[in-house]
Amino acid sequence: MPTTTPDPRPLTGEPLALDLLNTRWMREGSLQDLLTDTAGLAVWLAANGLDGRFTADAATLRHVLRARDALKAAVDGPTAAGGATGDAATREAATAEVDAVLEHGRIRPTLTAEGPGERAEFADESWGPAWLAARDYLALLATAPDRIRGCAHEACVLHFFDTSRNGTRRWCSMAGCGNRAKASRHYARTKDA
């Protein structure tokens, strides 16, 4: 059953793994969280076209929260800041958490009328959205790991996949965080003058 509740998040439409991370955002200095209950989970599932396949219940919410924590540790971990080496134990723990989510599903090759295909399978369907987000993270790593970014604004917790031609995007939104940064720099220049 599709949800009619609007998605309150400031950044949507990112790849599934990053969209899951973006279920937490800052509003007026306060951390917001879409996934505090199954109603928020229903909004997230609908935003990603998963509401027809998965149920927004307590078990699914619990697994999605586990995946979000694992992905956050992997994306924001010690290697996230410009490729620094970081702490090996922390990297290994983050990798193990993502891998633990991935243990709950698999890809099954299929043959369809259109040709070869793949289908995700889960022993427990409540792991589906969490597994799909973790699997999407692997796809992003395989595509362009250096383009998985956190917003450069110091007060922003959002993530994005940089699809700009030259790979220099810094802000989750130029209209939001980018504009705030420009306004701050302008204020600092005019204040000093």
Structure characterization notes:
With 193 residues, the chain is of the alpha+beta class. The protein has six helices and six strands; from the N terminus they run H-E-E-H-H-H-E-E-H-E-E-H. It has helices at 16-21, 38-47, 58-76, 88-102, 128-143, 174-192; strands spanning 24-27, 30-33, 106-112, 115-121, 148-150, 159-161. It has a two-stranded antiparallel ribbon. Strand 1 and strand 2 form a beta hairpin. Helix 3 (58-76) runs antiparallel to helix 4 (88-102) and helix 4 packs across helix 5 (128-143). The radius of gyration is 18 Å and the shape is globular. It starts with 15 loop residues before the first helix and ends with a helix. The model is unreliable at 79-84 (pLDDT under 50).
Output the helix-strand order.
Answer: HEEHHHEEHEEH
Specify the overall morphology: globular
Helix content: 40-55%
Poorly predicted runs: 79-84
Number of strands: 6
> What structural class is derived from the secondary structure elements?
alpha+beta
- Biggest beta-sheet profile: 2 strands, antiparallel
Mean pLDDT: 89
Q: Percent of residues in beta strands?
A: 5-15%
Query: Which strand order does the major sheet show?
Result: 1-2
Number of helices: 6
Q: Please give the radius of gyration in angstroms.
A: 18 Å
Task: Please give the alpha-carbon distance between the first and last residues.
Answer: 59 Å
